[in-house]
């Protein structure tokens, strides 16, 4: 008998669904809905609302809710056996927050299937838009919170990360400072993940230890709200936050709205969601400590599992709770795919194959030419004034600039992941740009490490589906082992291994010092 579980991933640009059959260990369905294309009436660009201040990046929680209706309708149309799904879990872009007023709990409990989710949710938001992870407008609030918590090292040791502009706590503080009335009218604050979980459960859902750690509000070791961090952020915050729980934990049966409207089984379980990066840890099978992956998506992320909680004294990297128990590390570079695209467009390079050919005209190390591709404000290193910096690099040279963007992104990863003190044995590469062998060769050479591609590009949605299976088994009184749950779903692509070229690796061993110096120089110039 089929053993179906649904995972949803509400990311920056799309909502994805993956259905797994645990009995046959197969992904039986996957679909993605691009927000800009499927829901153009929200006017987003790459899932983000336009704003005159380039540091402010918000999106629309109603758009995320509408996407849920649309993807369920699509699954029904595609003949997915919705009535056989046993449990649903999910993941969301991290850090984004949804502010709800006191009407929300009631509206969630009484979702009317004759209306759309958008109609059901009219009047429940105390803040119309949601700041998302790309927002860098809270430097002042970060400084205030960091100071109250005792500086960078102490903030990281307490909450798992230094105070970061995109983290939910600083964003909440800004909301409280700039819109105190609306903050006062906020009865409940959700993350993107817990908001979506709340829609499915028909009640305010908990936040999990993975996404909850992306707020600068959770005590990373105790996995509970940290009173000092709450106090440093905004008044009366504790009562606006839900409880924290393990991801995949059952919240309840799925809301009758989805049963009546789309034919879900009334016994299907709605579970706690997590962040997209923690879900990818599961989706990529990074269960053992020391396993590392690099995801090349809207943002580029470097992450892996960790047994003990070890935090970054310089405050660049993050520690989150892992859905597999224990901890995970993450470093997030904002100028990922969009920066690569910008270079491709700037030099009129037709596609990635053409990019590859161009790359062959240059040598590893680019003759010392370095590009710092901060098209957008950057997270690591922290850059609040967007700008592209070139060192010994002719702006007119398309081939050199093409190589420079890949090399810069990989060298930045190498430089800023040193605090983890993990020399990975093998890197799993995933995400949209991981099907680009040239980029992966640069990755292998810069990191001086084998790189293997992993099959799923929807690793977060897959991880969420497996998380649903885990939660369902726990609820049934079983003691499921994560290794067994992920087995068979997360194989690297056969023959995809790329080995570092020893000569090139040597070039980068030397170049990394110069790269760090260029970075320091550019940061000094910016001030
Ligand atoms: C992680 C981060 C991004 C988003 C992307 O800290 O900000 O990776 O989660 O969705």
What does this structure look like?
By secondary structure, the protein is an alpha/beta fold. Helix content is 37%, strand content 20%. Strand 24 (426-430), helix 16 (437-447) and strand 25 form a beta-alpha-beta unit. The mean pLDDT is 95. D-xylulose is lined by residues 11-12, 93-95, 133, 166, 214, 275-277, 299, 301, 330, 332.
Descriptive terms for the model:
binds D-xylulose, 527 residues, alpha/beta, six-stranded mixed sheet, 37% helix, seven-stranded mixed sheet
How are the SSEs placed, and which strands pair?
Layout: E1 4-10, E2 14-21, E3 26-34, H1 35-38, E4 44-45, E5 48-49, E6 58-59, H2 61-77, E7 85-92, E8 97-100, H3 104-109, H4 117-120, E9 130-131, H5 139-149, H6 152-159, H7 168-178, H8 180-184, E10 188-191, H9 192-201, E11 207-208, E12 218-219, E13 224-225, H10 227-233, E14 244-245, E15 250-253, H11 256-262, E16 269-271, E17 274-275, H12 276-283, E18 292-296, E19 300-306, E20 318-321, E21 327-333, H13 337-346, H14 352-359, E22 370-374, E23 387-391, H15 398-416, E24 426-430, H16 437-447, E25 450-453, H17 459-475, H18 482-486, H19 502-526
Parallel strand pairs: 1-7, 7-16, 7-17, 11-14, 18-24, 24-25
Antiparallel strand pairs: 1-2, 2-3, 4-5, 6-9, 8-10, 12-13, 15-16, 18-19, 19-21, 20-21, 22-23
Helix pairs in contact: 5-6, 5-7, 5-10, 12-17, 13-15, 15-16, 15-19, 16-19
This protein binds D-xylulose (XUL).
Residues 11-12, 93-95, 133, 166, 214, 275-277, 299, 301, 330, 332 line the site of D-xylulose (XUL).
């Amino acid at each position: 008998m089929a053993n179906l579980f649904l995972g949803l991933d509400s990311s920056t640009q799309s909502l994805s669904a993956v259905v797994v059959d645990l009995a046959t260990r197969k992904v039986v369905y996957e679909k993605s809905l691009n927000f800009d294309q499927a829901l153009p009436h929200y006017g987003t660009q790459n899932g983000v609302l336009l704003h005159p201040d380039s540091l402010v990046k918000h999106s629309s929680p109603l758009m995320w809710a509408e996407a849920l209706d649309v993807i369920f309708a699509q699954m029904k149309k595609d003949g997915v056996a919705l009535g056989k799904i046993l449990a649903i879990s999910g993941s969301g872009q991290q850090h984004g927050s949804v502010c709800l007023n006191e009407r929300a709990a009631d509206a969630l409990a009484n979702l009317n299937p004759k209306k759309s989710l958008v109609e059901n949710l009219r009047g429940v938001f105390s803040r119309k838009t949601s700041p998302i992870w790309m927002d860098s407008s809270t430097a002042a609030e970060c400084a205030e919170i960091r100071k109250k918590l005792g500086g960078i090292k102490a903030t990281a040791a307490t909450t798992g990360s230094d105070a970061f502009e995109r983290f939910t706590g600083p964003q909440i503080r800004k909301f409280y400072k700039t819109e105190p009335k609306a903050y006062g009218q906020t009865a409940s604050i959700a993350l993107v993940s817990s908001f979506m979980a709340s829609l499915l459960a028909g009640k305010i859902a908990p936040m999990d230890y993975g996404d909850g750690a992306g707020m600068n509000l959770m005590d990373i070791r105790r996995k509970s709200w940290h009173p000092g961090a709450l106090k440093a952020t905004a008044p009366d915050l504790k009562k606006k936050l839900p409880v924290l729980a393990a991801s995949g934990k059952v919240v309840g049966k799925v809301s009758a709205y989805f049963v009546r409207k789309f034919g879900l089984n009334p016994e299907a379980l709605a579970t706690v969601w997590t962040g997209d990066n923690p879900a990818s840890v599961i989706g990529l099978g990074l269960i053992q400590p020391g396993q590392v992956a690099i995801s090349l998506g809207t943002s580029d992320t470097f992450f892996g599992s960790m047994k003990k909680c070890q935090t970054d004294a310089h405050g660049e990297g993050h520690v989150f709770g892992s859905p597999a128990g224990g901890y995970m590390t993450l470093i997030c570079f904002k100028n990922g795919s969009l920066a690569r695209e910008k270079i491709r467009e700037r030099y009129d390079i037709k596609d990635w194959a053409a990019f590859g050919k161009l790359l062959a005209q240059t040598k590893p190390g680019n003759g010392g030419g370095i590009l710092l591709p901060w098209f957008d404000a950057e997270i690591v290193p922290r850059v609040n004034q967007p700008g592209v910096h070139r060192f010994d690099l002719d702006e007119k040279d398309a081939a050199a600039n093409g190589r420079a963007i890949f090399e810069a992104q990989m060298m930045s990863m190498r430089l800023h992941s040193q605090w983890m003190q993990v020399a990975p044995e093998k890197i799993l590469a995933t995400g949209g740009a991981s099907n680009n062998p040239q980029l992966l060769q640069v990755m292998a050479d810069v990191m001086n490490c084998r790189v293997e591609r992993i099959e799923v590009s929807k690793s977060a949605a897959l991880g969420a589906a497996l998380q649903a299976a885990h939660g369902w088994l726990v609820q049934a009184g079983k003691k499921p082992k994560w290794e067994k749950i992920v087995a068979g779903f997360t194989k690297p692509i056969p023959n995809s291994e790329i080995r570092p070229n020893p000569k090139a690796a040597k070039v980068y061993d030397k170049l990394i010092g110069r790269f760090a110096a260029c970075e320091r120089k550019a940061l000094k110039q910016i001030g």
